[in-house]
Design a protein that fits this description.
By secondary structure, the protein is of the alpha/beta class. It contains 17 helices and 24 strands. 23% of the residues lie in helices and 27% in strands.
Length: 651
Amino acid sequence: MSSFFLRPGPLLLAALLCTSLSLTGCGGGGDGSAATAPNSAGSPNANTGNDTDGNADDDTATPVNLSWGEPYQRDEEYPNTVNLPQQLITMRDGIRLAATVTLPADENGNAIDGQFPVIATFTGYNQFYSGGAFADPELVKRGYAYITVDLRGTGASEGSWQAFSQIDQDDIGELLNHIKTQPWSNGSIGMNGASYMGITGLLAGAQEDPAVDAIFAIVPMGDAYRDIVFSGGQINAGFIPLWVTLVTGLGLIPTPAGLDNEEPDYYLNTTLQHLQGALTEFQVPVVGGALIGDENKYDTEFWRIRSPLEQIDKISAPTFVVGGLNDIFQRGEPLIYEGLKDHTTAKLLIGPWEHLDGSSGAGLPADGVPDLSHIRLAWFDQYLKGMDTGAGDYPPVTQYYTGEERYVTAADWPHPQAKAETFFLHGQPGAPLFGSISHSAPTANKQTSLLQTPINGLCSASASQWTAGVLGLILPPCSAQDNVVNLLEAVYTSEPLEQDMAINGPISGQIWASTTALDSNVTVRVSVVGDNGIARPLTHGIQMASLSAFDASKSRFMNGKLIQPWHPFTQASQKTITPLQPFRADVEVFPTSALIKAGEKLRISVGTSDLPHGLSPIPDLLTSLLGAMTVYSTPAMPSRVNIPLVPASAL
């Protein structure tokens, strides 16, 4: 992968530019069937599938509004906006962060003298090269001040990049205090932004500063380790190199924003600080350490401190969460909503998006769902200005259903009517890589063997997803089907469905296997096959066999079936894989919402690789090379998947 990024061709350069502009512009165990998961921060809630109103404690609660109603609109209060001269905000250790304040202005461009509620965006993507898009003029013209800040070590700010560390979070606390005391601020703050800025918005809410009155977090991360960096114990070889390159590159580009007028060497000194930090403090040491398998290949404090889910109980501000079915943070977005809903107002909107389209809410308005700008205005007007916009009555959950191709509202996530069903994988004699799916457990001994290759997955929807859409731009046919990636996998396909099947929530693959090597990855893909034989991808998961032990107390069970295993990913939980000795790998398959129509087929495929989503650290990669994995379908070792289903009539 390193040579791929060091020698980009024209297509890749175009894709990287597109990514940059879009991001900156938008702001095991046993079966455990008797166990249930606690309702705790960062842990999935137990759901028996029997609740009917989304309130697990009181089925007599007031019915939840499931209609969006008319889009909220309000006339502009001011005809113009103006940026104040870029300023430097001094932190506790003397490091200065660059900030731009945008205020309402009159028809001549003069700033309005007054105090306003403040919308804040804390970014790592260099505010100057955003083209001013962080400060939404439609919000400013409606009576908001807007402040955009380059966080430490990024953009025009001093210091070295820290990527959501405790230092960054302490900076965020100081920035909130600074904002409250400014002459243009009335002391009420709303956090706004996509991706990086959505994450910092949540971390700002976790500061427990009462001034943070609302959060609008678009495609944010929940769990740094499990969502993105080490999904299944594997290095994310797609998005992480792209992201590190993007942030580092934008931090090394000179930013002609005026600070050199007072300090002629400011940008030179800042750029040198950024470069030194990249080489010695964060980017090179962290990426290099991941490749060689240092201690951070496990879920250490390094990752937990960067995970908003670890602090979700500290966020009291009403929070609107936007996610995507194919987003890089697909796993964490509904968990953020779950972690918030019981102690503050929270809403969840999930569209059919990869990361960049999710950042803008592409395709909205649709099916009665307004576009993000109208939703955001209503949210901030409600909670920063105290206006009755109806935002608090928005449906708790709105999700796009692939196959139904429309948005559906619900009282909770997963859907309150969801119940898990088990689908067993059956090998077929005479067809070593092809099998069937049924509700019946195996009655005969069947097995399928696969070569352990680390490169499968490059032509798949997964590859597009985990490069934030970049590989999808280069190889668009690959992102629309799983047929190519299935060539090196064990493929199990159902008979044509007799009736529609609606999926909602996370899925677990419980795969019995063995390997001739010392370890193996286990991947599970879920797709739907139409009459034309094309396997349309729905979702997927990856898990290193040696790290597949799960904690039942933090896992999600639905009507007694495991649907979302929670793996500790610690050195203590790592188990020894003995060649040719069977093991069970419980694979977390990320959540989806989809309708498989009558006549179509459900497909589950099991493999050993999902590049670039996951690549083993070099020591682990060496233990799994030159091996073969065998998948078992026997009465004693029944490989299966547990899928949460809702009645199609509920859609």
